Amino acid sequence: MADAERADGGGPAGSRRAVGQRTWAPLLAVCAGYFMVILDVTIINVAVPVVGRDLGASLTGIQWITDGYTLVFAGLLLTGGALGDRRGNRRVFCTGVAVFTAASAGCALAPSTAVLIAARLVEGLGAALIVPGSLALLQQAYPDPAARSRAFGLWGSMAGIAASAGPLLGGLLVSTVGWRWVFLINLPVGALCLVLTLRHVGASPRHPNRALDWPAQIAVVAAVALLTTALNEAGRRGWSDPAVLTAAGLSVAAVAAFAARERWARSPVLPLGLLRSRALSGGAAIGLLFNFAFYGMVFTASLDFQHQRGYGALGTGLALFPAVAMTMFASALSGRLARRTGHRPLVVSGMLLAAAGLAGWAAAGTDPAYPLLVVPMMAAGFGTSFALTGATTTVMSAAPAAYGGTASALFNTTRQIGSAAGVALGGTLLATAAGYGEGVRVSMAVGALAYLTAAVLGRLCVPAPTPAGRIADRRSDG
């Protein structure tokens, strides 16, 4: 059997894929793992001020508890995608779930800030193995374009559900049984994900002759880590500090080294030919921008609600609920509408709505009453998730099937770089602005600009639907 057709074990791959195409069990299995990863992004935002007080962490330490996870997640996503294409996405996905679950137990037992950050780094490794496989496995399980669009929409909705559940669940756990349960909650979810995946997700094709380009992987990790370090340390040291400038310069050098390596490598981790696709590279850039804006907003708002307004952990979760609750159905709605309108108008309108929301927050001043923030938060949350399905489908549809894991990894790498940069820059603005309220206001204005840029890219890079594609989608709905 050819290398490209080898399965990652566990029985006849073809029969399992056939079963998967007729049921929603593969979607449920894959989304359980993705839910766990995204829950860990949002649940920590409410818990981290309490964790910081309990462990005696500084503001920089608090940023690293949040960003340590994200930077490893972002830095190793391309590695996870390449491993999935080489070893089989199901095998790598299950390995990631096991690593993530074990690391969550380590976070829950951490006696100090340093140990917690180290365990969060290992969690990021597990997440980097989970996420590329999640989209690749859905692409494999649902080859029909209409079914795949629905699956991607529900995958995006799972992110919304996890995002909306995170602050409330985090606040409830911190207020009752303690912050360590923020991590212990991952254990049953991880176990359920493993069981469902092994039972219901078909074995994946493997490409064992595709070598892993370790120099390129190291360059990606270095670029992400150095950029995040520069943004985090700028809040403590200042933007002109030599260490900050050195980290930023080395990050640029690492990106240049990665590009040079990929240009000449025999088996590049990210073939530069893929980036020549305007849809793929533009969709990835859109993902970076809306994650930067949304997660930067959630992080700075969480600190503002607790430090300046005196809300407790549960109160902060409730205060953030208007933003994250809108994500629960916006992705599913956009998945259904896209079969009639195409993805371009949904991505553009979602980004414009989100930009209006954060611009409204910035315009409300340095100490606005909470009711004035409800509509801006709802607009940002809805607009972000409304664009997610379109950006996801654009990237995955532009990539050859053999590079499904790599395309998924690229998209999620840029998204997590955006998240890390948004959190880091938000913390830096809070630390360096004239006042806490001014830092929040500037952070929201920067987020609004990012959303506007994403709207422009959506207009330029997301393909318009063809009449034939619309007819086929309508027939499949019937």
Descriptive notes:
This protein has 478 residues and is mainly alpha-helical. It has 2 domains: 9-212 and 269-467, Growth Hormone, Chain: A (Up-down Bundle), CATH 1.20.1250.20; 213-268. Helices cover 82% and strands 1% of the residues. The chain has helices spanning 13-22, 25-55, 59-87, 89-108, 113-141, 145-176, 181-184, 186-200, 214-237, 242-264, 272-275, 278-308, 313-325, 327-341, 344-363, 371-398, 404-432, 436-461, 467-477, and strands spanning 6-7, 205-206. A two-stranded antiparallel sheet has the order 1-2. Residues 1-7, 9-22 and 468-478 have low confidence and may be disordered.
Instruction: Please give the CATH class of the largest domain.
Output: Mainly Alpha
Secondary structure class reads mainly alpha
Number of alpha- plus pi-helical segments: 19
Beta fraction of the residues?
Answer: under 5%
CATH-defined architecture of the largest domain: Up-down Bundle
| Strand neighbour order, sheet with most strands | 1-2
**Spans where pLDDT lies below 50 across 5 or more residues:** 1-7, 9-22, 468-478
Give me the count of strands: 2
Rg is 21 Å
N-to-C SSE string, H for helix and E for strand: EHHHHHHHHEHHHHHHHHHHH
Question: What does the overall shape look like?
Answer: globular
Helix content: over 70%
The largest sheet, given as strand count, sense and whether it forms a barrel, is: 2 strands, antiparallel
Describe how the helices and strands are arranged:
Blueprint: E1 6-7, H1 13-22, H2 25-55, H3 59-87, H4 89-108, H5 113-141, H6 145-176, H7 181-184, H8 186-200, E2 205-206, H9 214-237, H10 242-264, H11 272-275, H12 278-308, H13 313-325, H14 327-341, H15 344-363, H16 371-398, H17 404-432, H18 436-461, H19 467-477
Antiparallel strand pairs: 1-2
